Amino acid sequence: MAPPALPIKCKAAVAWGANQALVIEEIEVDAPQAGEVRIRIAATSLCHTDLTFLGVEQLQFPRILGHEAAGIVESVGEGVDDLKVGDHVLPVYQGECGKCTPCKSQTNNLCEEYWPFLKTTMMLHPLDQKSRFSITREGRTQPILSFFTSTFSEYTVVKADCCAKISEEAPLDKAFLMSCGVSTGLGAAWNIANVQKGSTVAVFGLGTIGLAVADGARIAGASRIIGVDINPSKFELAKKCGVTECVNPKEYDKPVQQVLQGLTNGGVDYAFECAGKMELVVAALESTQEGHGKTVVVGLDTPGSKLILDPTSLLCGRSIMGCVFGGFKGKTHVPGLVDMITKKEVVAENYISCVLPFEEINKAIDLLKNGKSLRCVLTMS
């Protein structure tokens, strides 16, 4: 029998306060408890969700952000029988207990055990509700809070139910894409909207998620995929991901929804809001066809933001729906999505803008904030 795991010291990028630069610190990561695994992170990346919550003044700090990553299981806690040391995994914020009604459903991925914890924006540990991270300064030890799967650390601890075991053939520095952004976009097109062959699609916001929506719509057989963004530098790459034409709202003197209605004889069949701005949800909704148009809200606006709609936009037969992780279940579906990267059915290179050492995470944040990066791979030494 292997000896029990011990706490381990490592580097992590700690958020000490809202809107502050992350600080590379030496922290201590506890051994995994019952039902948990500790993962050595090989590659992680930034998602706009991390930046959104970094800017929330009400959030408690210090905290370790991050939730897009790939790594290798370093140790396992008691009762974990489906993962072992050395397994290649993606830690995924969308847990899957496999026993509750949603987990057994074909149409619901909000696990009854993990969804309530996810809504607190922390990957809480039901065993004792304590973070597995701490830091010692001047002889004083204090806990560091977690966030989803807290992958801005060389090691992290998550529930085994929040790990997707993937093929060892999959490159970890590309597989991580399926732990959040790309999988969410693909699933929004496939699982939430159910984009049909020959249909018309509008994608508002051509960041990572928007491009993945376009990719998903392309694979589903959509005939027209219109990308909407105010940054024309994104248009060339968008066309590699399936976008057939691009619209820059700044080039028109009327609302973009009217532009799209004119381009599509009354509106598109499906619209996706991927920029995380409530005013664009309204534009997306009104850009769809009356009678059957579907709008999917994929982007995350600042918590507390309000959506104000003209009710007639819905009474005419349009619909609007939300999307969590593209409707995918982490353990069940993510391994197959990673295989799509390995088989080049999804081209990972389209989403990766740069590669930096983990210590340069603040540079990666600046690139993302300034619209100069999609996914920047942060590699651990």
From TrEMBL:
Q: Which Gene3D superfamilies match?
A: Medium-chain alcohol dehydrogenases, catalytic domain, NAD(P)-binding Rossmann-like Domain
Question: A single Pfam family, by name?
Answer: ADH_zinc_N
Please tell me whether the keyword Flavoprotein is annotated for this protein: no
PROSITE patterns under this entry? ADH_ZINC
Keywords (alphabetical) are: Metal-binding, NAD, Oxidoreductase, Zinc
Classification via InterPro entries: ADH-like_C (IPR013149), ADH-like_N (IPR013154), ADH_Zn_CS (IPR002328), ER (IPR020843), GroES-like_sf (IPR011032), NAD(P)-bd_dom_sf (IPR036291)
Its GO biological process annotations read: formaldehyde catabolic process
For activity, the cofactor(s) needed are: Zn(2+)
Query: Looking at the UniProt record for this protein, which Gene Ontology cellular component terms does it annotate, in alphabetical order?
Result: cytosol
Q: Has the keyword Metal-binding been applied to this entry?
A: yes
> One MF term from GO for this chain?
zinc ion binding
Report domain Enoyl reductase (ER) positions. 17-378
Coiled-coil intervals, chain numbering: none
What PANTHER family would the database entry show? ALCOHOL DEHYDROGENASE, ALCOHOL DEHYDROGENASE-LIKE 4
Similarity remark = Belongs to the zinc-containing alcohol dehydrogenase family. Class-IV subfamily.
Name the chain's protein. Enoyl reductase (ER) domain-containing protein
Query: Which organism encodes this protein?
Result: Adiantum capillus-veneris
